[in-house]
Amino acid sequence: MKLPRQILCPDGKTEVEHTPDSSRARSSWVVRSFTNRLAEPLRRLLAGDSLSEAQVKAEEKKKDNKDSRAVSALKLEKRASEFGEMVVMKTLKSEELDRIMLDEQGSIKRQKVEGAVHVVDDDQQGSSLQRRRRQLQPRGDCPYLDTVNRQVLDFDFEKKCSVSLEKLDVYACLVCGKYYQGRRKNTHAYTHSLEADHHVYINLQNEKVYCLPDGYEILDPSLDDIRHILNPRFTVEQVAQLDKNRQWSRALDGSDYLPGMVGLNKLQGTDFMNVTIQSLMRVTPFRNFFLIPENYQHCQSSLVQCFGELTRKIWHARNFKGQVSPHEFLQAVTEVSKKRFCIGQQSDPLEFLQWLLKALHAELKNSKNNSVIYDCFQGEFEVMKETDGKTGDDDVLMEKSRMPFLVLGLDLPPQPLFKDVMDKSIIPQVSLFDILKKFDGDTATEVVRPQRAWMKYRITKLPKYLILHMQRFKENNFFIEKNPTIVNFPLKNLELKDYIPLPRKIEKSPSKYDLIANLVHDGRPKEGSYRVFVHRKSEELWYEMQNLHVSETLPQMVALSEAYLQIYEQHH
């Protein structure tokens, strides 16, 4: 049903059009306009009033202005109707002349020539009392959808305008992939649409797609894949099937990749961060927590939000590329750590891992000081400290305390000071069970600083995921020395209670562990590189990962590596 339209007539009144054909309405006010023009002089003539020639011309000019104004309004209405909009021309209360203009999008703007300034319509801002807003209707038939270029889209970088470097109200051009701010007139995105003839943009916050400079929203299901790349989503059912999925995915460039096994771009000395992230991705409850944004939507920390986004991109099965860049996450790390970890500066994975776990816990902890980090990695051991008394050598002071831990540090046996000529090519080896005796409660470890003491450790609570650190690097007054000792460790069924006496209350709890990640250091101290061996549960296979390099490897190669950090999963 077509709605009736109001037509502005020359006499200043409005007439409602009830028929589809507008010719009747036009003819009615045209006839009345000429009648009114003749009625006034005739009335004065019959009344005996004499009109001067100047007065007659003034009356005719006034009538002509009204006629031209009405004709302009009709032309304006006809042009606006081409945009599919119903234009209602209301009678203006003021007798002053108004100038009516039509902009490029078909929205009507009115502006006073004299007197008070009239309100100009704005699609973006202004209250309803002070501004008239004209909402453009969303469309699904945008003619510029074929210009979208998915090959150039990359949402891994920090979301800020490439011109103003602002982070608010940022849009991505789906034609060239660059970021610009705003979509109103005179904004960077609006200007780019006119200069480069690029018309399709997506809001990086609410994921709405717009056509610029027209300004209408595009509703088309063919753009859903771009939204999934911008902000990957997982359901609870999909998360539960991740460790069972064996299907490979194919990127737009034709490369195949395994979800969860994608390479990470190296950003100049950030391999320590890449291997740490890949190791944490094997911790199932930790990973599952960050795959569901609702679990941490209350947290406003950029570190938590960026780490969650990076986790979802690593495990996403419909990526446009076979690799992911941790650039945005690294920017958040640099800001939160106050440049302790940054691009171009090689760091220790152990230091980064400990800092990251503590920083995430600080943002996610609840009222009971608990979080998913403590649920996964926190254990507890008992420390017995023996120190010499001040009165004599026989006087020994005993101190006993309990301390939580996230990482267990294991001491490697020192290298011999003098090597035999025949033993130069022999690399020393040690069993993991031998260095775990440090935590049996009987083995004493001598500590010199801050005072000489003997420390005994005994594990009182086992974590669900056990992180072991082989202390390979020792720093003296001159240089940092690396211990190349090979640690022999099992890949499966590491039974701790056979080598570490456990308290009775945890004897019945699971004490058997399986290796899921083995982080390795290659080369000299401060000059080497890091790589990691990770276990894929769905295939029961091992993969070697170093930045963008991802390849399948043999379990024997994992056992022969110089382990630096290991993550074991509790076996149920």
From TrEMBL:
CDD domains in UniProt: Peptidase_C19M (cd02669)
GO MF, any single term: zinc ion binding
One cellular component term from this protein's GO annotations in UniProt: spliceosomal complex
InterPro entries with a match to the protein in the record: Papain-like_cys_pep_sf, Peptidase_C19_UCH, Ub_carboxyl-term_hydrolase, USP, USP39, Znf_RING/FYVE/PHD, Znf_UBP
UniProt keyword Transmembrane helix present: no
Pfam family, one: UCH
Family note: Belongs to the peptidase C19 family.
Identification of the protein by name: Uncharacterized protein
UniProt organism field: Linum tenue
